[in-house]
Amino acid sequence: MKHTLSVLVENKPGALMRITSMFARRGFNIDSLAVGPTERHDVSRITLRVDCEHHSLEQIEKQMHKLVNVLRVQELAPGESVERELALLKVAAPASKRTELMALAEVFGARVADLGPDSIVFELVGSPEEIDSFEELVRPHGLQELGRTGRLGLARATRPQRPRSSQQVMV
Amino acid sequence: MKMNGADAILRCLEAEEVDVMFGLPGGAILPLYDAMARGTTVRHVLARHEQGAGHMAQGYARASGKVGVAVATSGPGATNLVTPIADAWMDSTPLVCITGQVRSFLIGTDAFQECDITGITIPIVKHSWLVQDVGELPEIMKAAFHIARTGRCGPVLVDVPRDVQEAELDFSYPDSISLPGWKPPRRGHARQIAAAAQAVAAAERPILYVGGGVLNAHATDELLTLAESAHLPVVTTLMAKSSFPESHELHVGWPGMHGPKWSNWALNKADLIVAVGARFDDRVTGKVSAFAPGATVVHLDIDAAEISKIRHADIPVVGPLKPVLAELTKELATKKVESRTEPWLRQIADWREQFPLRYRDDGDLLKPQKVLEALQELTAGRGDLVWTTGVGQHQMWAMQYIECNEPRTFITSGGLGTMGYGIPAAVGAKAARPDATVVCIDGDGCFQMTQQELATAVLEELPIIVVIVNNGYLGMVRQWQDMFFDERFSQIHLTQTLPDYAALARAYGGLGFTVENEEELYASLREALASGRTCVIDARVDPREHCFPMIPAGAAALDLVEFPSESEVPAL
Question: Taking the domain B2-170, which CATH number applies?
Answer without folding.
Answer: 3.40.50.970
